[in-house]
Amino acid sequence: MRNNFILGPFLRYLNICWHSSRVKVCNIEDFKKTTFQRDLCSKHESLVSHFLECVSRMCPNLLSISLSGCGHITDGDVINVLRSCRRLQRLCLENCCRVTDAVLHAVVTHGGSLQEVRVDFCRNVTHTGLQTCREKRPGVWLVAERSAGMIPDIQPEEKLHVRRVLQKVLVFS
After folding, report:
1. How many Å apart are CA 132 and CA 102, to the nearest integer?
2. Which residues 6+ apart lie within 8 Å of 97 measured at CB?
3. How far apart are CA 155 and CA 173, in angstroms?
């Protein structure tokens, strides 16, 4: 039976796997979602974040946390867990599309007990962030399957800025 846990200081291992047909919708960049898709996500997008907030408050002795398919969690949610659960030895993030290099910076700053960090299929994690984390925390086993090789989210205004720069370069050449 998997639903037989109570949040508290005795909880050591936690796996959260968000598996549903909605996961495909959750992992679409917000600016690309249709109104229907945004409405679908609005009904559950704070669910895991709220739960992680409770974990941060109530589970200071957590040793391992694994978050898979949690497309709505943010850097702040994970950083809060790192700050509160100082004994955390293993952090696994898989397909958490809003997670960025800020989490890797928090691993360096707040993850003193961490031995293993996995950021698989997290498209907004970069090679630079991974390299910095490896340099500053060489004792941590850092795995990033396809994370830094994926295309990161690009806001429409960022694309517009790049387009303008390219236009200026072409005009002046």
Report:
1. 11
2. 26, 27, 29, 71, 122, 123, 124, 153
3. 28
CATH number at residue 117: 3.80.10
Structural domain range at position 77: 13-172
- Please report, in angstroms and rounded to a whole number, the separation of the first and last CA atoms in the chain: 68
Cα–Cα distance, 161 to 155 (Å, whole number): 10
Strand order in the sheet with 116-120: 13-17, 64-68, 90-94, 116-120, 141-143
Tell if the pTM clears 0.85, that is, is over it: no
- Residue 25, classed as helix, strand or coil, is helix
How much is the average pLDDT of 81-93?
A: 97
Residue 5 lies inside a defined structural domain of this protein: no
Q: Domain count of the chain?
A: 1
CA–CA dist 36, 42 (Å, integer): 10
Residue 79 lies in a domain: yes
Q: Which residue has the higher pLDDT, 103 or 69?
A: 103
For 140, the token pair is 């941590």
Cα-based angle 95, 99, 26 (whole degrees, multiple of 5)? 50
pLDDT band, residue 76 (cuts 50/70/90): very high
Please tell me what DSSP assigns to residue 62. -
